[in-house]
């Protein structure tokens, strides 16, 4: 069964959104879950992406992704009407949602996408929602309006000050954690290094913190062990035990190193893909 | 032996047989036929099949070695009771079609079983010829003969006939060997059968675990095609428990019976220091990258990378360990060490594969076991620290227990470590289904007909047996299908 792309747009520099037919996944999915896709044939890599939204009656799911390497670049080049050969899911344990009083949700870059369904569910569960979104610069800004619509407070930061407040997300996070009453819970999704520093902040204020880890994955069903991380010194499989974990117990340093294991090969695959495309262009 | 010598020998044997003067002596004198294989140096650099299969002349000579024992002890050694002596007689007579028909009465995947069954501890272990020579390697090569007839048929496989539709629906969860057999047998009975597979390609461990050089993917592909031609629906990228639960399949989607054949795909780790370092893999991950995603072609088509290893340690002594070690050689490793804590005699891997691994230059480190994995400041594995062992008293399994020698630690420099010490049951079905009974290892509990504790739900293969074999999974698929067919016959529509 192929999955047709029924809507697609570019949200900002290197950030893309698509709505894709996947009726069974649209029906079953819950906030915090993800899919694994591969674009075509035998040779494609399988990559995980969070389900950013779903419309069960239309049978579609939404994905938001950042172009970082070969597969996400290939995805960026697909158009409405194109098909994705393989999508499996929904995978992962759904987010535990309850009324914590006030929650602070921090999204870094593309992390805002997986955060949105969780933040929405938290809001619907009666929480007072403080959202903090951080981007490298204005051209990378995504989902501001969506978050504005559900948040009681929203802070947007950029690294270079080209939009919102010039700061790292850890600054407004520390302020939010320092207030009285303290937030009952924090949800943080973004680059691993950002999650690590955010967890250092919430730890100081004793605010329980959930992070969503994006390790390298193969099968997503607990079969390969490739996604394992150390939590409390013990191995955990992100695809089945997570992707969300107590951020104060995750060994981020080790995770960052594991994520970099394939850097040279990933660069090679991406360069070959780009070169190949250029040649096609010249032939025409 | 040359082709002509073989031909001459066969003719003289056949003449004696016709004249009624063929003695067991004559049969014992036939040299065991070796299977031609790819040169060990050449195959280190390709993933093509290693063992090339018998010629017809070799097959007939090997078949003539069979004594046609009245009691046929080989059949008792076969988990699915193939009429071994009869199919061998058919080959000796040159009737390979008949031989295949006989095999197919009991085994649906002879091209697979002929390649991967551990014959030396099954049919060939009890073979009279091997016993006479006190050497199981001189038993009749039943597996190679099975492979020979299966391969002859490869192109023209007939599509099994299917009874008229019963109006009942059967769901098969998992497309490993057990699932394939259960699907074929329930479909033959006329049910509407759908196979659900989590991966994007069907075939189970036969496609993501067992490497191409031992079991070409095309063979598994053909079997799946046959299922499709029989009218079985194959739905890939469908994770039962997540995409739909078993309960939903039964109450909302109208399935009357469900066979669970999800295998044992949860890799075990050792719990030693350094297992999370970069460069440490489970065998499942390593083999999946290489097989399913063809990482051996990385850079010339495939997108999925695999570690560019130079020195690899593989921990374990089973088929999975051999496959991982041999795969490492093929993706470019210069040194591959196989670390196993007992001796070669206790190794659970197939003898033939141990032999192939050695030919390919894999270094066996026996009576050794890792204590920790050492890494550098970038958390990359750089060495494995091992302890030496000796064998003590036999344990519950009857094998002598390995005992560590205190103070015997030593280091081996490596950049990659592959852990291949076994798989446990995947917990997904357990977590998402109520009403199923599991044992303390997480395996599904079934009765002798492969019925689970939940009405309408059956199970077999590795999820029931723990990590077992292809043939045992097939056997269970068969039993389960028979129970499903029985139960559905009685079930009102
Ligand atoms: C549960 C989960 C949910 C995710 N959700 C999203 C999402 O909603 N949007 C989004 O843009 N990204 C998401 N990611 C990350 C996304 O999977 C990677 O960006 C993608 O796999 C990169 O593939 P590539 O071929 O384009 O790049 P590559 O060239 O393969 O890699 C570029 C970099 O991406 C990371 N990466 C590589 N392979 C993987 C992999 N299989 N899984 C995770 N990271 C990898 C590595 O840090 C690598 O250095 C998620 C990851 C996980 C585990
Ligand atoms: C590397 C390796 C080498 C081996 N070598 C040999 C050998 O030489 N000889 C031998 O006899 N045996 C060998 N084995 C063992 C043999 O492969 C297994 O015993 C056999 O495949 C088990 O069959 P099964 O039917 O239980 O399912 P499996 O082959 O395990 O397949 C199960 C299938 O179910 C799918 N699945 C899992 N969960 C779900 C879900 N929730 N929804 C949908 N689908 C799901 C999986 O993706 C998989 O495709 C080897 C195993 C490995 C790993
Ligand atoms: S036991 Fe060996 S010799 Fe006897 S019938 Fe079987 S294969 Fe032939
Ligand atoms: S991705 Fe393979 S176990 Fe998690």
Automatic annotation (TrEMBL), chain A:
Question: Which parts of the sequence bind FAD?
Answer: 64-66
- The protein's superkingdom reads Bacteria
Query: Where is the FAD-binding FR-type domain positioned along the sequence?
Result: 1-97
Record GO biological process = pyrimidine nucleotide biosynthetic process
Q: Which Pfam families match?
A: DHODB_Fe-S_bind
Key words, A-Z: 2Fe-2S, FAD, Flavoprotein, Iron, Iron-sulfur, Metal-binding
Question: Which InterPro entries would you find in this protein's record?
Answer: Cyt_c3_hydrogenase_gsu, Dihydroorotate_DH_Fe-S-bd, FAD-bd_FR_type, FNR_nucleotide-bd, PyrK_electron_transfer, Riboflavin_synthase-like_b-brl
- Residues binding [2Fe-2S] cluster: 224, 227, 239
One GO term in the molecular function aspect is: 2 iron, 2 sulfur cluster binding
Q: According to the record, how does the cofactor bind?
A: Binds 1 [2Fe-2S] cluster per subunit.
Cofactor(s) the record lists: [2Fe-2S] cluster; FAD
Q: Cite the NCBIfam families for this sequence.
A: PRK06222.1
Could you tell me which PANTHER family the record lists for this protein?
A: DIHYDROOROTATE DEHYDROGENASE B (NAD(+)), ELECTRON TRANSFER SUBUNIT (PTHR43513), DIHYDROOROTATE DEHYDROGENASE B (NAD(+)), ELECTRON TRANSFER SUBUNIT-RELATED (PTHR43513:SF3)
Record's protein name:
Sulfide/dihydroorotate dehydrogenase-like FAD/NAD-binding protein
UniProtKB/TrEMBL annotation, chain B:
Disordered: annotated segments? 16-42
Species name: Anaerobaca lacustris
Specify the Dihydroprymidine dehydrogenase domain's residue ranges: 43-152
Q: Under the GO molecular function aspect, what terms does this record hold?
A: glutamate synthase (NADPH) activity; iron-sulfur cluster binding
What is the protein name for this chain?
A: NADPH-dependent glutamate synthase
The enzyme's first-digit EC class, named in words, is: oxidoreductase
Q: Which InterPro entries does this one have?
A: DPD_II, FAD/NAD-bd_sf, FAD/NAD-binding_dom, Helical_ferredxn, SudA-like
Keywords recorded for this protein, A-Z: Oxidoreductase
Its EC number(s):
1.4.1.13
Tell me what gene encodes this. Answer: gltA
Which superkingdom heads the taxonomic lineage of this protein's source? Bacteria
- Where the record annotates domain FAD/NAD(P)-binding, the positions are 168-477
Name the coiled-coil region(s).
none
Annotated Pfam families = Fer4_20, Pyr_redox_2
What lineage is this protein's organism placed in?
Answer: Bacteria, Pseudomonadati, Planctomycetota, Phycisphaerae, Sedimentisphaerales
